[in-house]
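note to self: dont lose this again. the chain is below, predicted strucutre after it. 106 aa total, dont forget to put it in the shared folder this time
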Amino acid sequence: MYGGKAGVKVVYPALLLYYMLNDPEVAFKNKLYLAGALGYFIFPADAIPDFAPLIGFTDDISVLFLALSLLKENIKDKHRELAREKLKEWFKNYSEKELKAIETSF
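---
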């Protein structure tokens, strides 16, 4: 599974962006940033190939975190809850401490 290779550090921010993108209360202009960041994340040809050892997801993480930093006032508790629910399905052993550490990065 792609999410398994990327890990929680990449997938959780992507899920937050996804749920923000699908929120009708988020402004259209902001959705353009969200769509751009998610598009870059899923596009197979990016600056650093994802299969490159150790650094493959570095550019993806940077783009996701930049979008979250720019739009952090739009992140709602419901986005966090939905992202956490999906993480429970995909990653059985993630920790809340890990998610808090990720959230302090943006």
